[in-house]
Amino acid sequence: MVVALAIVAVIPLANFIATSNSRTLFLSRSNDADWFAAMAESPLQTGDIANLRELAVRYQELYDTPVFVVDVDSRVVATSVSGVDVKEEDIATALHSTLAGRLPPEPPALWPWAAGEMIVSRPVVNNGSVLGAAVLRVPTDKARDQVQRGLLLLLGGLLISIGAIIIGIVRPITRWVLRPLQDLDNATHQITRGALDTRVSTDGRAPELRRLGDSFNSMALSLHQARQREREFVADASHQLRTPLTSARIHIEGLSRLSPTARFALSDIDRLGRIVQRLSRLAGSDRPSADAEGNEEPLDLAQAVKERLVGWKAVYSADDLELIIGEMVPGGVAPELEVDDILDVLLDNASKYGAPPVEVSVTRDGTEVVLSVRDHGLGLGSRDLKKVGERFWRSAHHREMPGTGLGLAIVRSEAARVGGRVVARPPIGGGLVIEVRVPLIDDYDA
């Protein structure tokens, strides 16, 4: 709308520039034509036109404008150039009015995209009788160039005006309209960072934006309530599990002196207890202090793996699967690393999705201790290897088999909790290797 109004306003100005330049040129050359008409009066009466021809030639040399004089019968009697055709449309029209004793109308406006000469004629009169006419064929190139420069300046002014209008009016309006969307974008980023209590203001907004803001606030409230219910559930579940676990441990402790199997069950009870503690920490309660964790001794990863493999060798043997215990290099790691959980997930996956033999080893690689579990199954493609550890992800080859897709995600979370990482790669000879790499504690004394 603003641009349309500016264009409508500039059209009359452009026409004024073209008309003004045309009129200025026409008036200046009309005075010259009047002078020639006065000088041609006597020669047309006497027939002596030599001086008149010389005047026409000198005028063209000086002003670069051809000029000629005709008698009352439109015959050329004096000219500065040869080959004048009085039957040309523009010349014939001008002579018809001039020889009839009337002044021709002003020529049309000079526009840069048009071409042609301006014909200026004046009658030669003696005692009210028309003896002939003086005609100037005026070049218009310079005048059209002036009009073009004027139009360019006008166009530049128009663009500057439109820009000023946009900056002064449209831009503030645009910013006012987009501000709610910017607020919504900022709030979305806050939500993704975990600030689920973030809300956006809907006051003074357009109806559509107000509805969008209300929908966003409703979504954020639902997320916040869901997270709160999740934490409450985890806290209640972990609290309710403590008492039966403690009671079960007391009873099994009494049996552990008599049965090795009971001792293995006691180890699982302790593992369940640690799981409950992690659930409590996840819910934001019972978080152990940094000092308490720092006072614990480093954990020998190789020794912890060997102890857990005692039970898994029996499981694999019962299923006629071969479990190979490879190199076991001692290495101290963070004591809070849940080795049993990690090894259970890796060996369970290898038995379900891979193929025997399954080999377990613990090695050192620079500043890392590496727990490796290798199987000899089909392995994974390069795209699938990049997705290992994502929550609920399962390979297309294994979707028909039982599972949740959370096992390796838990392993990755456990490794990350102590500053470690999980690497999946295809080994030489086929199959799949899952490596759990955790930082080596330098002061560990094997």
Structural features, described:
The protein has 446 residues and is α+β, with helices and mostly antiparallel strands. It has three domains: 2-146, Beta-Lactamase; 207-287, Signal transduction histidine kinase, dimerisation/phosphotransfer (DHp) domain (Helix Hairpins), CATH 1.10.287.130; 297-439, 2-Layer Sandwich (Heat Shock Protein 90). It is built from eleven helices and eleven strands. The chain has helices spanning 2-46, 50-63, 89-99, 141-192, 207-256, 260-282, 290-294, 301-318, 339-353, 382-387, 407-417; strands at 67-71, 76-79, 118-126, 129-138, 299-300, 323-328, 332-333, 358-365, 368-375, 421-425, 432-439. Helix 1 runs antiparallel to helix 2 (50-63), helix 5 (207-256) runs antiparallel to helix 6 and helix 8 packs parallel to helix 9. The model is unreliable at 285-294 (pLDDT under 50). Its EC number is 2.7.13.3. It catalyses: ATP + protein L-histidine = ADP + protein N-phospho-L-histidine. Pfam families: HAMP, HATPase_c, HisKA. Its cofactor is Mg(2+); Mn(2+).
Short descriptors:
alpha+beta; Beta-Lactamase; Helix Hairpins; Heat Shock Protein 90; five-stranded mixed sheet; four-stranded antiparallel sheet
Element layout with pairings:
Layout: H1 2-46, H2 50-63, E1 67-71, E2 76-79, H3 89-99, E3 118-126, E4 129-138, H4 141-192, H5 207-256, H6 260-282, H7 290-294, E5 299-300, H8 301-318, E6 323-328, E7 332-333, H9 339-353, E8 358-365, E9 368-375, H10 382-387, H11 407-417, E10 421-425, E11 432-439
Parallel strand pairs: 6-8
Antiparallel strand pairs: 1-2, 1-4, 3-4, 5-7, 8-9, 9-11, 10-11
Helix pairs in contact: 1-2, 1-4, 4-5, 5-6, 8-9, 9-11
